[in-house]
Every structure is written in structure tokens, then in C-alpha cells.
Amino acid sequence: MIINHPLLGPRDAAEFIYLGDAALIDRPDWQAEDAMQQFHDYAYLRDNPAGPHQELWYHEQGDRSWLVVTRDTTTHDITDVQLARDVARSRGRDK
Amino acid sequence: MRYSAFRIFREGLTGNKGWKPVWREPDPKPEYDIVIVGGGGHGLATAYYLAKEFGMRNIAVLEKGWIGSGNIGRNTTIIRSNYMLPGNEPFYEMSLKLWEGLEQDFNYNAMISQRSILNLFHSDAQRDAFVRRGNAMMLAGADAELADADQLRSELPFLDFDNARFPIKGGLYQRRGGTVRHDAVAWGYARGADSRGVDIIQNCEVTGFDIENGRCTGVQTSRGAIRAKKVAVCVAGSSGRVMEKAGMRLPIESHVLQAFVTEGLKPVIPGVITFGAGHFYVSQSDKGGLVFGGDLDGYNSYAQRGNLPVVEDVAEGGMAIMPMIGRARLLRSWGGIMDMSMDGSPFIDKTGVEGLYFNGGWCYGGFKATPASGFCYAHLLAKDEPHPTATQMRLDRFVAGNLIDEKGMGNQPNLH
């Protein structure tokens, strides 16, 4: 697989470390009433779709940026790559 | 029809005209007591033990493709019970005991060969960890044997003992481990279940679950609706997409694991050898091919095929520990989809929906677990309480922190 890095251009996927579902960006509020349940769901449950999947890849053997990669889990086709920082900010995170 | 040497002899003299299809091809009935979703090894074993051990007959096994077309046809055929934790080891030891009696039990040749499995170690710390695991195995009634480098040099002279990075200091044997003819397991269970009245329905995909007021009353399929008192899902690899139809999120990711086989060679490797530090394990099939594999590709996948970096990694691991295989030519490689759970251990449990049961999360240990998985799932379905060896394989174990985490990796499924 080739990941088209937004800053560095096309890179071999072997340069990256995989973390998992990009929903991990959306960390629950630790002060919520049901924080225990929310953190359980956050840490342990996954949508695990067969089809397009947004996921976190870390460019360990490159510029060490985190990316949000949209990839089809039935074909391994990559359709979109963004910096995780930009995705987090667009969802209202400060960093 | 009962298989025996006498039968082969008689059929040989009469032109082999007496052999019959091994199972029927019935149309689905409108209602069953139990509908098992998934006609793989575990689903067929569940049906077999429900019929044989728990006296239930009105059962259907629904399979999307042909039976045994999933992971029981795509694994590397190894059986073993060399686990450590109390939630796992008694279960896998029960499985190995069931393997030992399986061919007599279901009267089918599964070519079960207890040719031993060996885990290599390369440092003092790793030896200590293996000693601990061996002791845990023996406490659960399994066999374990520590071998030092001298013993291995005489038994397996082809290994690279003086590898610069991973010198071989010894290994942990389980002599009762070995290999099985994997497809024959599915066929043997299917035949045994069918002959006891279980309907095995192929080319029948489940498209939805009928859930009313928190109770599952049946399934929608590509061959019409089927009502059921109990619905038992058993589709490891596809658990995510099947349970999604029941509105359920699971502590599971689906990952691809590759395997490889070489051209046939004369006998060179006596048992199963695993080189965990280098991500490589190998055995030799009865046909002579070296069957080997390594690590997951490491990203979510339903594609049943992997990518080249892992092919390279596995080949490097093999060459590092066993340089003699460098001249063997690769015949095939393939990928299977694993339910990778959040602690590396499986689930055999009820769900939050009454009448809906779940079996999955087998990671890459599903094949060896087939008999015990079927037996324990049948126990749960028949009695509505878990089998004593499977009480910890609960879907909700993460809520209370009761993980069964053999490797201590936490919720990082691609590292288990």
C-alpha cells in the first residue's frame, strides 16, 4: 500500500505504524456522569466496518506525523489522507 | 454409513459404487429450536455436540457459501494447548483432549498427528517466562517439556543455533501438540451433525436478525425468513459485519493474517517449530509442503489477502532461523480474516439480546479451539450457562477489567 502523505507525497505503508479507528481522536469527557461507560466504549468497542474506514497511521520512519487515512477494508484502496492534527482541529480540539 | 477398513476393502472389490454423499442438502424449514449462523469448523462442531452430547435435533446451520469455506480452510492446521492464564489454559487443554479422541468420536479420518510443537527461546529472561508457562500448562493437566540447546542441536540440527541476534538457547516442547487435516474437521463434524438430523443449509446468507422487545425470534436470510428459539452467531472473521446487523458493536477488529506453502519436499521438519521472536512458525504437511506464517499485516482488513512487506518479513524470519529453506520455492500464499479481540482472547457468551448468542474473537487461535469451542458453545446454548472451562470468555469482561491478556498488550488488537 502507498499512503499519499499530505506533506511528503506518496510513501510506502511499511514506514508507518497502525493504531486503529480514527474515532480514537474523539476522547470522551472524563467529567461526564457516565464517563466510565464512555471510556469503556472508547477504549474497547469498534465499528469495524467492511468498507470505507477512517484510521490513524503514524509516520514513524518519516516525519513522525499522525495521519487520518480513509481506506476501504475490503480492497485496501486509500481514498483520502489528512493530517490528524487538522482533523482534530476541525472537530473542535485545540491540538 | 460407518467408515472402516473393512468398508474400504468391500467397496474396492465392488467398484466403489456404495459411497454416498456425506451430508444432505435440505431446504430450510420455517422454524428451528436453534439456528447456528456460520457453517465453519466452530459452527459445525457446535451443531455436532448439541446433537450428540445434549440431545437436541431441531437445529439448522446456515452458511453463506459452502461449509468450511472460511478460516477452517485457510489456517495452518496447528493444534496445541500451550497457553498460560487460568481463563484460557483449561479450555485449550480440553480442546486438545477432544482432538485426541475426535477421529474415533466422529468416525472420520482427520489425519490428527501429534508430532509436537516447539517454541524457541533466545535469552535467560525468555527461558524464565517459558518455564513459568510450562508450569502453568502442567497445573492445568497439559504436558510441557523444557529442552536445552544441546538437546535441540541433536534433534533439529538444521536450525541456526548461533544466529547473531537470536541465538537459540532452548525451547519449550508440547509433545502432544501437532497438526490436523483441517478440511476433514469441517467435513467430519458436518457428517456427524447431519446424520443426527441437523439441517446444514449452504448458500444461505443471513441478512438480518428479527429482534423485538429485546428478544431475537429468528433471522432473515437470502432463502427466506427462519424463526428460531435461539440464534447462535459463530462467524469469526466476519463478526463485525454480522453483529452490526443486530445493532451491536464488539470489542473486535478484523485483521488479515497471511500463510504460505512451499512445493512438496521430502520429510525435513519433524514437528511444528515456532520462532516467535522473529515472527515465523513452520510445519511440514503430509504432502511435503512447508506450511508457514508469521505476524498479522497489522491494519483492519476484510480482503482475505495481505501485502508484500509481511511476505518479506516472514521470509526473513524463516531464513534467519532455518537457512535450509532458502532453496524451497513458494507454491502459494493466502490470507485469512481474524476476529482480533481487545485482549487476544475469545468470546463464548450470551449477548444483551435474549435468544441471541455470540461466539467469536478467536484471533489466530481458532482452529485449535474448534472442538472445545463447539462443545462449550453447545453447552451454553443447551443449558443457558457457560461450560466450566469457558466462564471467563465473556463479552462484558472489559467493563470489570477481567481481561484474559496472555501477552499483556492491552487494547491494541494488531499486537496480540
UniProtKB/TrEMBL annotation, chain A:
<protein>
    <submittedName>
        <fullName>Sarcosine oxidase subunit delta</fullName>
    </submittedName>
</protein>
<dbReference type="Pfam" id="PF04267">
    <property type="entry name" value="SoxD"/>
</dbReference>
<dbReference type="GO" id="GO:0046653">
    <property type="term" value="P:tetrahydrofolate metabolic process"/>
</dbReference>
<dbReference type="InterPro" id="IPR006279">
    <property type="entry name" value="SoxD"/>
</dbReference>
<dbReference type="InterPro" id="IPR038561">
    <property type="entry name" value="SoxD_sf"/>
</dbReference>
<dbReference type="GO" id="GO:0008115">
    <property type="term" value="F:sarcosine oxidase activity"/>
</dbReference>
Automatic annotation (TrEMBL), chain B:
<dbReference type="InterPro" id="IPR001763">
    <property type="entry name" value="Rhodanese-like_dom"/>
</dbReference>
<dbReference type="GO" id="GO:0046653">
    <property type="term" value="P:tetrahydrofolate metabolic process"/>
</dbReference>
<keyword id="KW-0547">Nucleotide-binding</keyword>
<comment type="similarity">
    <text>Belongs to the SoxB family.</text>
</comment>
<keyword id="KW-0963">Cytoplasm</keyword>
<dbReference type="Pfam" id="PF01266">
    <property type="entry name" value="DAO"/>
</dbReference>
<dbReference type="GO" id="GO:0005737">
    <property type="term" value="C:cytoplasm"/>
</dbReference>
<dbReference type="GO" id="GO:0000166">
    <property type="term" value="F:nucleotide binding"/>
</dbReference>
<keyword id="KW-0560">Oxidoreductase</keyword>
<keyword id="KW-0288">FMN</keyword>
<keyword id="KW-0274">FAD</keyword>
<keyword id="KW-0285">Flavoprotein</keyword>
<dbReference type="InterPro" id="IPR006278">
    <property type="entry name" value="SoxB"/>
</dbReference>
<dbReference type="InterPro" id="IPR006076">
    <property type="entry name" value="FAD-dep_OxRdtase"/>
</dbReference>
<protein>
    <recommendedName>
        <fullName>Sarcosine oxidase subunit beta</fullName>
        <ecNumber>1.5.3.24</ecNumber>
    </recommendedName>
</protein>
<dbReference type="GO" id="GO:0008115">
    <property type="term" value="F:sarcosine oxidase activity"/>
</dbReference>
<dbReference type="InterPro" id="IPR036188">
    <property type="entry name" value="FAD/NAD-bd_sf"/>
</dbReference>
<feature type="domain" description="Rhodanese">
    <location>
        <begin position="34"/>
        <end position="78"/>
    </location>
</feature>
